[in-house]
Amino acid sequence: MPSSGQIGLHYAYKASLIGSAHQFDLTEQGLSWRISGRSGLWPYADIASVRLSYRPVSMQARRFRADVGNSSGGRLSIFSTSWQTAALMAPQDKDYRDFITELHARMAKAGSRAVLTGGLGPRLYVAAIVCVALVAIAMGGLMVQSAASSQWAGALFLVGFAALFAWQVGGFVRRNKPLTYRFGEVPQTLLP
Question: What top-level class would CATH report for the domain 9-119+177-190?
């Protein structure tokens, strides 16, 4: 949905099946947005924060999010996927990447002093690590119990489940490690 033009870069996505698309434009004046009948223009120098994160959902495993905040306390969320039908969420990988990269470039050019962070907040990340560790301990205990009682089918199931869990949750935890970055170093793990 984005397009390069003389005025700027455009990006749009549907956050839900009901309602209009969330539309964003990078203009000469700043970040212009239109969401559910509301609109605004944030000068690049007034953008106070950008947080990039990886946020998969059941309908789309490759879903990324950018939370943009301005100096007045306003917040915008920009997702890398768009709802198409009740069962289809379409990725917009290249368009999202291009838009977020260009937003950072324009903010840097405007002399923005925004706080640039990635991943989950530190407290939430620690809570996620603790939960993963508890699940790993529980699954290890179940595997030992299955092996001790010669329940090989159960042990094999637990090994398969542990591999799937490590693949799914491990990727989420690895990508969402809390970090700060600079304008010229946008973290590639938090972009599609």
Answer: mainly beta
Burial zone of 87 (CB within 10 Å; 0-12 exposed, 13-18 middle, 19+ buried): exposed
The domain segmentation of the chain, as residue ranges, is 9-119+177-190, 122-173
The 10s digit of each residue's pLDDT in 129-186 is: 998 889 889 988 998 898 889 888 888 888 888 888 887 788 888 889 999 999 989 9
Structure tokens at 29: 């004046």
d(CA 82, CA 35): 14
Q: What is the 3-state secondary structure (H, E, C) of the chain?
A: CCCECCCCEEEEECCCCCCCCEEEEECCCCEEEEECCEEEEECHHHEEEEEEEECCECCECCCEEEEEEECCCCEEEEECEEEEECCEEEECHHHHHHHHHHHHHHHHHCCCCCEEEECCCHHHHHHHHHHHHHHHHHHHHHHHHHHHCCCHHHHHHHHHHHHHHHHHHHHHHHHCCCEECCCCCCCHHHCC
Lowest mean pLDDT among 78-82, 107-111, 166-170, 186-190: 166-170
